[in-house]
Amino acid sequence: MDLSKIKMVVSDMDGTLLNSKHEVSRLFLEQFQELKKRNIQFVAASGRQYPSMADKLNEIKDDIIFISENGAFVKKGDEELSVIPINEGLTQELLEIVDSIDGAYAMLCGKYTSYFDGKSMSFLEQLKEYYSHYEVVEDYAAVTDEIVKIAVYHGISAEKYIYPRTKHLDEQVKVKVSGQNWVDLNHIEAHKGNALQKVMDSFGINSNEVLIFGDYNNDLEMLSLAEYSFAMANAHPNVKKVANFETSSNNEFGVEKVLEKLL
């Protein structure tokens, strides 16, 4: 494997760069400094909101590109590079569908703040880990913020209980199982692959010059952009089918092991 041409490193966060305690390793932060010295751009790509991503990567947040909300919001430093909101007319229709699914709870996601109607306290506890900036509202109709994603949570399995009831919406919105408990609904053009392609184009990066890591279905499009695409050992089977290589799990420094070879 010849990684000598790599100019950009892209990683998903949960299940990939972060361990099961949702922590970034000190080793990665040290490796990042070496990436920076070599002018290799690092991109964090996640279904998380931007403030939550920035909190996790606080030490390096001013030097990296954030692809947040599955590609609906892209930011570097103080500059907003891209915003793709959900069609305003679709939001209410989507909320009604989610409301009809037993055990499912929805959240509206703006660029910097997420909104939750407080129906499930257990969901609220999950929310705090992935959405550090949120508001509890009595009525979603009162939210005037531009909505870039609707995140839908199920306490047992999103793939089993939410996805079958929402997959028919695929021609209207991007429907992605983004984790064990989550299905995300975005604008049809808002996904990590589309966002990353725009970033790569702006930097003049080719498919053999980027290293990409992922573990779940919302990583599929971006993994397909690279020759050096890596699935984590803990990845969803769909991801292992798409990725060209496999590395160790997120709890066994899978990203860091590949970066050691690069550096």
Automatic annotation (TrEMBL):
It comes from Flagellimonas meridianipacifica. Pfam families: Hydrolase_3. GO terms for molecular function: magnesium ion binding; phosphatase activity. Signal peptide: none annotated. This is Cof subfamily protein (Haloacid dehalogenase superfamily)/HAD superfamily hydrolase (TIGR01484 family). GO terms for cellular component: cytosol. The lineage of its organism: Bacteria, Pseudomonadati, Bacteroidota, Flavobacteriia, Flavobacteriales. It comes from the Bacteria.
